[in-house]
Amino acid sequence: MEKNPYEIIRTNYPSYSKVFRVIADYILNHSDEVLKTNIHKLGRDLDIAESSIVRFCKALGYSGFSELKIMLAKYGRQSSKIIFENLRTALRRRLLEMFFRLALKPFKLQQNNLILVLLKKPRIY
């Protein structure tokens, strides 16, 4: 079964050692750079032994650094898509709130109830 490395890292982060947290932080904040590097350079950049990186990969359930990179590449784009969808939903909600605040204020309608009804619709035409 394939495992999303980002979810695994976020879920297990509180239980990580200091060294694992350094690796996890770097992966979460610089995943594009991790995809372009090798284990030797990553170890040197983080001042962490390569064996610690391998142990980290195995703790995530992967055979090694190469498999981790493959999974980061696979799930990285999916994570971006989820973030985009969340932003789009938030933007749509904000635009609706602004519209009702400005357009319907003179009519004294219950804006909150109307907004909630419209937000449940997948599309507004």
Question: What does it look like?
Answer:
With 125 residues, this protein is an all-alpha fold. The protein contains 7 helices and no strands. Helix 6 packs antiparallel against helix 7. The radius of gyration is 22 Å and the shape is elongated. The model has no long low-confidence stretch (mean pLDDT 81).
Summarize the structure.
The chain is an all-alpha fold. Helix content is 74%, strand content 0%. It contains seven helices and no strands.
Keywords:
7 helices, mainly alpha, single chain, 74% helix
Structural class: mainly alpha
What characterizes the major β-sheet? none
**What sequence of helices (H) and strands (E) makes up the elements?**
HHHHHHH
Query: Approximately what portion of the residues adopt beta-strand conformation?
Result: under 5%
Number of strands: 0
Mean pLDDT: 81
Residue ranges: pLDDT <50 for 5 or more in a row? none
Helix content: over 70%
Alpha carbon gyration radius: 22 Å
Number of helices: 7
Shape label: elongated
Distance between the termini: 41 Å
